[in-house]
Design brief:
Structural class: alpha/beta
Number of helices: 14
Number of strands: 11
Oligomer: single chain
Shape: globular
Strand content: 5-15%
Radius of gyration: 23 Å
Distance between the termini: 60 Å
């Protein structure tokens, strides 16, 4: 039976959910429950009551203690699985020393065999660290938790990483699927259900489990922190001044005046070491401060605009949406701390 016939036929798709000691239990268990929930909760359409057969797979069967110390039961070993349709690596916890490659050679070789046999490889959040070790993502687009983006690039410079994106589907057969930060595994699982079972079923699953499609992307969640480990003392001094004075009028001109550099030299060196033009850097700091005010206060948007350095509130609104993908009002509705949770 061909892979395409499996996707459209009545036989369930075999899903291997990889368990390894670095795995995060909340993601692993969530993916397991939701994909099994399609049949357990009777959500699938007639004729496709059991669209997925989900197994927790590891190097050894039996109890496995995960990153949090909580054990989970590994149902099948990689030696038991000759082929599968979908292979999912859940989030993994990166220790202070970072991701160490080469610890799971048998698992890596098995993943390669599954892909050679037609399996679609999927990762949730930081799970892409393991998949990238196969080399199959080299030259391909992927996403990862934005907090791990720099470390991922250091480990796998050949992978084209997009931490601001919720879901990235790449590969010649759309066979490489990665989801971004934390709960974007919702989007990955809903995508797989929609693709293999149908959009109606995916929507019903989303409703039953109260899952969300993160349609605004991850830009609103990313906190801007300008790079300061570059070793240019003159620019670092300017950055430190800017943290407390970004709202003043003409902050770029003021930084240049305070430095010992010519304007052209200052701007060139600023871009070289921070990756941003001085004006863009100022804008990002102002938007970050505006985000905190929207989250924690009831101040009007026009007042917040003025507080962070913009007299033209219309310009501020346009800049805010261009930077975060959301209007200030939409951002406040999404992220403002509820009244009952405030101190």
């Amino acid at each position: 039976m061909s892979r395409d016939e499996k996707l459209t036929g009545s036989a369930p798709l075999r899903v291997c959910l990889v368990a390894l000691p670095d795995a995060v239990i909340s993601t692993l268990a969530g993916i397991y429950d939701v994909m099994n929930g399609v049949s357990m909760m009777g959500i699938a359409s007639p004729g496709a009551e059991h669209p997925f057969k989900v197994d927790i797979v590891g190097e050894q069967a039996g109890p496995l203690r995960l990153a949090s110390g909580v054990p989970i039961d590994v149902q099948c070993t990689i030696g038991d699985i000759a082929a599968c349709d979908i292979l999912i690596v859940p989030s993994v916890l990166l220790r202070p020393g970072g991701w160490e490659t080469g610890r799971y050679p048998a698992l890596i070789e098995w993943i390669k065999r599954m892909h050679d046999g037609g399996a679609r490889l999927c990762s949730a959040c930081s799970g892409v660290f393991l998949l990238a070790e196969t080399g199959l993502f080299d030259g391909r687009d992927a996403t990862v938790h934005f907090g791990y983006a720099s470390e991922f690039t250091a480990c796998y410079p050949s992978v084209l990483i997009h931490p601001e994106r919720v879901l990235v589907i790449s590969g010649t057969r759309e066979d490489l699927v990665s989801s971004g930060a934390s709960n974007t595994w919702h989007d990955m699982v809903l995508y797989l259900i929609a693709h293999h079972v149908g959009a109606t079923v995916a929507q019903e699953v989303a409703r039953m489990f109260a899952l969300q499609w993160h349609q605004d992307g991850l830009a609103p969640y990313i906190i801007f922190e300008g790079r300061k480990d570059h070793g240019d003392a003159e620019i670092q001094t300017a950055q430190e001044w800017l943290v407390k004075h970004f709202s003043v009028a003409n902050p770029v001109d003021e930084m240049i005046k305070r430095s010992r550099l010519a304007e052209r030299t200052f701007k060139r060196r600023f871009v070289e070491v921070t990756g941003h033009a001085p004006l863009v850097y100022v804008q990002r700091l102002r938007i970050e401060d505006a985000k905190r005010r929207l989250e924690r206060t009831a101040a009007p948007v026009d007042e917040i605009s003025w507080s962070v350095g913009y007299e033209d509130a219309a310009f501020f609104r346009r800049l805010f949406k261009r930077t975060t993908g959301m209007t200030p009002g939409a951002y406040r509705r999404r992220f403002q701390i509820p009244e009952f949770a405030r101190g």
